[in-house]
Amino acid sequence: MSVVSNRGGRSSDLDFASALDNVPISRYNVAPGTRVLVLNQRDDKLYLDPLEWGYGPDWWREMKRQPVINARVETAATSRMFKPLWNHGRALVMADGWYEWKKDKHDGKVKQPYFIYHESKAPIFFAAISRHHPDVKDPPGDDGFLIVTSASDSGLLDIHDRRPVVLPPAAAREWMRPDITSARAEELANEASTPPDDFAWHPVGKSVGNIRNDSAELIKPIANPLV
Predict the structure, then answer these.
(1) Would you call 131 helix, strand, or coil by DSSP?
(2) Quick one: pLDDT band at residue 5, thresholds 50, 70, 90?
(3) Percentage above 70 pLDDT, the chain
(4) Given strand 111-118, what is the order of strands in its sheet?
(5) Measured on CA atoms in the order 63, 66, 68, 74, is the torsion positive or negative?
(6) CA–CA separation, 168 and 123 (whole Å)
(7) What pTM did the predictor assign?
(8) How confident is the model over 181-209, as pLDDT tens digits?
(9) Burial class (CB in 10 A: 0-12, 13-18, 19+), 205
(10) What pLDDT score was predicted for residue 9?
(11) Neighbour-count burial for 6-38, b at 16+ CB within 10 Å, e otherwise
């Protein structure tokens, strides 16, 4: 999964402590391993902080494993690796949509990318969890974030078996609150997320597979997709 991130700004009436810029970010091919602006709440203020997309604690990296980019909603709240982030590092990633690659049922080597977005074309908020030390001069090397995912359903299942958890504005604001319980966060992610039928999608060119490509051309629909 890669992300189209064209959004910035505010999502609630809390004080916003970071610098505001009304110019769109205009990133059309945001890949894991890159830094992304992550919206988070600390005390009674909102912050936009650049964090790397990917996470692996010290013990994980000692086993020479690559950073993880997604956390399954079914297990994230209780797993050894993700529980601390779930409890104390909930955040949002703002975007216009995301890409998924659909595989041919008869030949897994044949794949076609699709751009997926809200049918209203409104901005979307991915539920994320993070490890973050914003007030430390030299933050630990394992600071980063993951996007929470759930099983696909309805038409989205035809594209990919997993999808990011997208929260509507009210649920997104509550998700970031430091004072809600882990159980309440699970309720939001499982029961308040935007349903699959609210999304639309179309095939796009395979040039999105190269991170060096980054322009509005990437999200334009194409005719005659492979799959």
Answers:
(1) strand
(2) low
(3) 92
(4) 27-30, 2-5, 97-103, 111-118, 199-203
(5) negative
(6) 10
(7) 0.91
(8) 999 999 999 999 999 999 999 999 999 99
(9) middle
(10) 44
(11) bbbeebbeeebebeeeeeebebbbbbbebebbb
**Using the 8-state DSSP alphabet, how is residue 81 labeled?**
T
Report the 10 Å Cβ neighbour count for 104. Answer: 12
- Interstrand relation of 45-52 and 35-42 (parallel, antiparallel or unpaired): antiparallel
- Round to whole Å and give the CA distance between 5 and 93: 8
Burial pattern 149-176, b for ≥16 Cβ within 10 A else e, equals: bbebeeebeebbeebbbbbeeebbbbbb
Rounded CA-CA distance 35/22 in Å is 19
What tokens were used for 150?
């759930």
Q: Which amino acid is at 221?
A: P
Closest CA to 206 of 193, 222, 183, 195: 222
How far apart CA 103 and CA 5 sit, in angstroms, is 24
Rounded-to-integer distance, Cα 114 and Cα 197, Å: 16
Q: Single out the residue of 57, 54, 9 nearest to residue 30, CA to CA.
A: 54
User: Which residues are within 8 A (CB) of 128 and not within 5 positions of it... i.e. 6 or more apart?
Assistant: 38, 90, 91, 92, 93, 145, 146, 147, 148
Contact criterion met (CB below 8 Å) for 98 and 1: yes
